[in-house]
Specification:
Length: 125
C-alpha cells in the first residue's frame, strides 16, 4: 500500500509546526548527571559504591588514572549506564580531570572514540 501523493510533505510540515508550538526541552547534561548521581534510592547508592570501587580498581591498574573503558570491566553487576557517567566525572575529593584522552579500544562500536582520562585523588584517611 502506498501513501497518496502529498502526504509525506504534509506530515513533515505538521511535525515542524508541532516543534514550533511545543519545542522539545533542551537536554541539560550536567543537571541530568547531578540528578542521577544524587538519586536517594538505596539501590542507586549501592550502584554508586560499586562503581566507585571499580574506579579504584582500574586506577590501581593504571597508575592512578581511569577512563570509562578501563572502569567498565570492573563493574561486575547490572547498574544503570547513566550512573557510570554520573559517577565517572570530576568531583571534589574523588576525581579530577586531566588534559589526556585515550581511545576506548575493545571490540565494540566505540573502540575508536576518544574518552577523557581522570585522575583518582587518593584517600587521606
Amino acid at each position: 500500500m502506498t501513501a497518496p501523493a502529498g502526504v509525506q510533505p504534509d506530515l513533515f510540515a505538521f511535525l515542524a509546526v508541532c516543534d514550533v508550538l511545543k519545542p522539545r526541552p533542551v537536554h541539560d547534561t550536567p543537571a541530568i548527571l547531578h540528578a542521577v548521581m544524587n538519586d536517594p534510592l538505596p539501590a542507586r547508592q549501592t550502584d554508586r559504591q560499586h562503581i566507585e570501587a571499580a574506579i579504584r580498581q582500574a586506577a590501581a591498574e593504571h597508575g592512578g588514572y581511569v577512563t570509562a573503558a578501563w572502569v567498565r570491566p570492573h563493574i561486575t553487576r547490572d547498574v544503570l549506564p547513566q550512573m557510570v557517567g554520573a559517577v565517572l566525572r570530576a568531583r571534589a575529593g574523588f576525581l579530577e580531570p586531566t588534559s589526556r584522552i585515550e581511545r576506548n579500544a575493545g571490540g565494540n562500536g566505540n573502540a575508536l572514540k576518544w574518552s577523557p582520562v581522570w585522575r583518582l585523588i587518593p584517600r587521606t584517611s
